[in-house]
């Protein structure tokens, strides 16, 4: 196309704002198939400048931006021409090159170790430009400098300051033009330079003095002691204080922080306001042994208040085990609970901040899971600020090819299109700007954002390590490298902001505070009523009296309420049959099945004004088609939830089909319950076997959190368990693992066998004031077993029976020669086989709560069998699994003198169950027969 024709065509209305979407669509089609557009458009697209080394999406994004600008500017801008007009296009492409790839040549590494090739796209020559063009004026498109045109020389300097200085911004992977424009405006308008007053600079310096001063003090006072120092990443302290201060100024009331052990002691003292004397006592070994087993000092959490221009902000640092990143979903759960309590739907009032290591964020899968949760309905918290303390080495692994497969440790964040701000930790003012931009982005768009604080680790993994053994080059540089405090103090002195004498005075003052054991955080305040009151839940025992009974009138009213739905809401035929049966159950015309009794428990709790929250991969319907708490309209897919429509002013009922994860979802719900003691919070495994993917949460939080940290938790876990011949991964919830973790009355392990039992077990978890975790081996086949039914009267009693004795009236105690103890589904198989055998000399006792072992109830049931010599424990699980090894000592301690206890069940096995139905049936029949055989 001749130049004149091309120019005339481009000056036509085709590029007006109203046609932007049409042009973008044409370009999309061209990328998919060049022959799909007309020859005229194909020629235009073919002549568009190409950026070497970029993929198709890079080209597409850049060109889409160009079209938007062209649409705004109309005929004033020419896309393809010769001479000056051609260079105009090159200038616009230069701007996009810096936006896309400037971070790759940014000055990020304080040690200068990173060896990064020069990006050709950032060179003038690559765009057919040179210094000879520096005095020429060009249109700068969307470059956010407040003017339409600039001299190329000024533009090039501005681009370098903005994108290849101490901040390397990655955001062009974001698909939202609005978000990209917002980030461009924030960075380009100030050329990535923070505008701080002298007072603000002094605050930053004081943060660096505190970070450096505490580490030096501890190093001198407790030489060789592990403290996992922050040295090298000192800018984390002013960064956190800036986040809290700025968040509070914008109305945030709580900030919850999660981090591993690197720099934790520094954060505790210099951000949270922990008294340094308490920390010194911990180093000296002075502890209160009455508080439980305790934990090492660099795993401890803390709470305090922090004054800001917008009022006090409540701070909470989550307790954290050594499983590094597992704290992230715990923090998010805690934040969601606090937001729910405040009625905060957007996340404005409670802010989550998670602090990661560079190797950990790239290496641990729970990070991907929490990113994936970040916008899911059940788990969103309005965005998390994620800080990476990137000291360029993980334990002793420092080579990029050994720690990750991507260019940056933060590449994982791109999966949710989070912007990533890489920043040089030795430039604290750049750190502050990155912090401000990150917080404002989170508050504006309610999405995750990442700050990659590129720094170093002055010592080894801990202070007893010798890092030169594995990182000799790095540590030769570290040894000679000045501290961030020294670098910044020298800079402020040179520019005349803060004199060297003033810096020394501030340093000496901080040392004085440590010597006197005074709080080092000026903004610290004693805690006020920011958090929930746990007082009503403290100091209770298992046997404390509680009242959970309900009147029959109330039970029937609730039953009728949750068994109805609008006629205008057609449901699937099988679901309709279930609800038709529930109407009969509500009227007392039919005994209650498991699903209806469970839903009635939830109804009774929300009717009392309390919250019920349930998450799991199939929790709305129920994995085994039993719950149907959410009814799906078969015509328009709308949803109706009977439990949300009981009465005005009821408590919230939230049931969510969760993301396909166990570890992150369970950790989230643990965090939720540690911040919210009221109501009922449930995590449900799709199959109980799958909970092994979340074993770290059981081990490090649920079973031991109270002993280590004094953290109460009332989380309920439903783990479907039972041997129905479905193979080794769909049978056992690994009951033995939870029983092995039981000690110090740390949690409950129950196996309810009737609908009334599950109803009263769930109500007990809420009504009883004690808050401890509840692990439930929930059923599968029992959900519809004809014998596993209950009456409304049994539900109304309000009693969960820890032990259920013999129920068949024709079994006379004095005739009994053998007593079988069991739990769960196998009871019904024993019962049916005994009835089939017409045996009258065998009694069956169900143990519904295996821990804490119900000694009193068990002893009472045994009173009538003191003459019996044969006692047997029957279980479905292999002998090395299930309850046998962990609970037999409890049974034996209760038996009459001169008697013995034997085992009836599967033989020991490496696998939880067999995979062949024929073998399963044979084994199941054999263990039932063995249990019932009187010797």
Automatic annotation (TrEMBL):
Keyword field: Oxidoreductase, Thiamine pyrophosphate
The family this protein is said to belong to: Belongs to the alpha-ketoglutarate dehydrogenase family.
SUPFAM superfamilies per the UniProt record, alphabetical: Thiamin diphosphate-binding fold (THDP-binding) (SSF52518)
Higher taxonomy: Bacteria, Pseudomonadati, Pseudomonadota, Gammaproteobacteria, Alteromonadales
Function noted in UniProt: E1 component of the 2-oxoglutarate dehydrogenase (OGDH) complex which catalyzes the decarboxylation of 2-oxoglutarate, the first step in the conversion of 2-oxoglutarate to succinyl-CoA and CO(2).
Domain Transketolase-like pyrimidine-binding: 592-785
Entry's EC annotation: 1.2.4.2
Protein name in the entry: oxoglutarate dehydrogenase (succinyl-transferring)
Organism for this UniProt entry: Thalassotalea insulae
